[in-house]
Amino acid sequence: MALGNRDVIPLWYGESDVKTPAFICHAAATAMEEGYTFYTHKRGLPELREALADYSQRLYGLPVGADRITVTSSGMTAIMIAMQVVIDPGDRVILVGPVWPNAEAAANIMGGEVCQLPLRYEDGETQSWHLDIEYLFAMCTENTRAIFINSPGNPTGWMMSTREQKEILEFCRLRNIWIIADEVYSRIVYDRLVAPSFLEVIEPEDSVLVVNSFSKNWAMTGWRLGWLTHPPSFAKPFSDLIEFNTSGTPAFLQKACITALNDGEHVINDMVDLCREGRDIVGTAMSEWPRVRYRAPEAAFYAFFALEGMENSLKFAKQLVLDVGVGLAPGTAFGPEGAGWLRLCFARDSSELSTAMDRLANVFA
Ligand SMILES: Cc1ncc(COP(=O)(O)O)c(C=O)c1O
């Protein structure tokens, strides 16, 4: 409705306004000139898979062999091919929600029976979103094939603990259930270097697929590049699925990803600083709006907040665009539990964000 309208401040998408740093762009251009323009390895250039293995090793201090890594054409594609490997029609897939809607769509395309387990929101001093693990286990019927967990979470910013990861892993091992762990926000964290990862608790052959992406960390949303970490024995099925879905990712883009991984740690630090500043601006504004229920997230770059008296979040978000020129995402986009909620992406330039807060104050204050 308002896409491309310059009068509207777009806080609806899950991306920052930071351009991909020049040194990463140059690496792609150089690789193109050097002739990285041909068909390529289905599961990714060996040197990129090695660089990803090193990146994992650096972050978690644990070896992850390149045989466990498949490069994909985005985090979204990683989720899609994960579902293609795991889900047959009629299989139950449980999603911890509220969650980015594409995960549910991917499970639906495969004919999965999708159920969402909502996190519980509590106004508290610390973490505000809680996972009821016992309830999650109770939802696992005979036909349950996979649990999809996005931590740090979009839209909530919920971050799963290592203890919770271990408990779920133990349960899934016994019940032969796959875990699809979407960790694309693992580096957008405010009190540590990286969020707890399933990679730290699994054995290589565990039935766990970990999704990650270049999009959020290195300001590369438009490049469409991600990766999957999977059991080594699944290299062949993933190679086949890449062949039939995308036939691989442009080699010159992959070369630039190696540069991002090896020389781009400061890009992630800057991204987190930008998000932290955005989180502060939004938090200060929201603390003065009595109808708004909000706690700053521990991770990811979204303010997900409830608004008293709002009945239809989609209708409300559309009206907000017309009335004050700020674009937010309606809570219902993330599942039925999101009815009274709105999502705002704060990974943006601070002056633009302040203007957006001034405009929103006309409605929320
Ligand atoms: C939770 C989550 N997972 C995966 C993705 C996919 O990211 P991309 O396809 O840009 O790599 C997104 C993007 O918004 C997301 O929010």
Please give the structural blueprint.
Layout: E1 9-10, H1 22-33, H2 46-60, E2 69-72, H3 75-86, E3 92-97, H4 101-109, E4 113-118, E5 120-121, E6 129-130, H5 133-138, E7 144-150, H6 162-175, E8 178-182, E9 208-213, E10 226-229, H7 235-245, H8 251-263, H9 265-286, E11 292-293, E12 302-307, H10 313-324, E13 326-327, E14 329-330, E15 341-345, H11 350-364
Parallel strand pairs: 1-13, 3-4, 3-7, 7-8, 8-9
Antiparallel strand pairs: 2-10, 5-6, 9-10, 11-12, 12-15, 14-15
The site of pyridoxal-5'-phosphate (PLP) has 13 residues, from α3.
Task: Outline the structure in words.
With 365 residues, this protein is α/β, with parallel strands linked by helices. It has 2 domains: 9-20 and 266-364, Aspartate Aminotransferase, domain 1, CATH 3.90.1150.10; 22-263, Type I PLP-dependent aspartate aminotransferase-like (Major domain) (Aspartate Aminotransferase, domain 2). The chain has 11 helices and 15 strands. The chain has helices spanning 22-33, 46-60, 75-86, 101-109, 133-138, 162-175, 235-245, 251-263, 265-286, 313-324, 350-364; strands spanning 9-10, 69-72, 92-97, 113-118, 120-121, 129-130, 144-150, 178-182, 208-213, 226-229, 292-293, 302-307, 326-327, 329-330, 341-345. It has a 7-stranded mixed beta sheet, with helices on both faces. It has a 4-stranded antiparallel beta sheet with strand order 11-12-15-14. A hairpin with a 7-residue loop joins β5 and β6. α2 packs parallel to α8 (251-263), α3 packs parallel to α4 (101-109) and α9 packs parallel to α11 (350-364). It is globular. It starts with 8 loop residues before the first strand and ends with a helix. The mean pLDDT is 96. Bound molecules: pyridoxal-5'-phosphate.
